[in-house]
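Quick one, probably user error.
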């Protein structure tokens, strides 16, 4: 086996403890040594916490509330919950949060408010933010611009990026890293592969978004961190380099951002 190692910057842990052990064994066998366990709801936050506790050497923790939670309580209530959770665990990031106007256009205002509240919390804590954005390009940029940020390193990551080069450029201008998931391997994703060729080395990250969106050639299966190797292979082709080089530079970027 080669000694190439990978960093999967976005996975949700929803399975039983035994399933997590099996999934982690397959990740290690594939060379995936580090994973960000990402929250987003009460259930996802609990799963991420459990994974981070079980694998403190390998799993970094992001806790937050995603767009589906928007409107069910005031943003301050969610912020208080996060403060309590952060009192019991070391956070590497806040998230995921962000906006999705494809599935939830009716809660747009509440999504913006919840997103902004978590950007403020991340700023207060000096942590990066894990951001989801779908059909909400303009609103995402607006909230980023309107919410103060005092950091001098990267502000966070746009996870599972699906936008065009122009949106990528606007996010890069706002100190964001850009993470590509299995979607970049899909047959009809030529426009996304153009974005993947465009993002500079020092802002590039890879992820699985486990358990969703398994990449080609395992599309349709339940996704898991071991499959991040397929995302790296695709990016290597698009960027005319080797998978080893993609693994190396994305791991370095991820360590800087999440530890
Ligand atoms: Zn996610």
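Nope, works fine. Designed sequence:
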């Amino acid at each position: 086996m080669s000694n190439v190692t990978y960093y999967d910057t976005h996975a949700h842990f929803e399975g039983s403890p035994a399933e997590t052990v099996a999934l982690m064994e397959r990740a290690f066998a594939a060379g995936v040594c580090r994973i960000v366990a990402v929250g987003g709801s009460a259930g996802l936050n609990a799963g991420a916490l459990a994974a981070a506790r079980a694998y403190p050497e390998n799993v970094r923790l992001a806790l937050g509330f995603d767009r589906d939670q928007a409107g069910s309580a005031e943003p301050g209530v969610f912020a208080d919950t996060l403060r309590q959770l952060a009192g019991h665990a070391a956070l590497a990031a806040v998230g995921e949060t962000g906006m999705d106007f494809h599935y939830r256009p009716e809660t747009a205002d509440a999504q913006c408010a919840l997103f902004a509240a978590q950007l403020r919390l991340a700023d207060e804590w000096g942590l990066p933010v894990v951001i989801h954005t779908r059909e909400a390009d303009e609103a995402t940029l607006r909230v980023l611009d309107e919410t103060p940020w005092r950091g001098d390193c990267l502000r966070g990551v746009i996870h599972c990026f699906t936008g065009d080069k122009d949106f990528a450029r606007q996010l890069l201008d706002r100190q964001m890293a850009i993470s590509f998931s299995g979607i970049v391997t899909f047959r009809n994703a030529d426009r996304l592969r153009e974005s993947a060729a465009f993002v500079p080395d020092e802002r590039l990250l890879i992820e699985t978004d486990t358990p969703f969106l398994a990449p080609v050639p395992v599309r349709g299966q339940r996704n898991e961190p071991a499959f991040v190797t397929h995302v790296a292979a695709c990016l290597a082709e698009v960027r005319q380099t080797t998978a080893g080089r993609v693994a190396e530079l994305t791991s370095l970027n991820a360590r800087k951002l999440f530890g």
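The chain has a mean pLDDT of 97.
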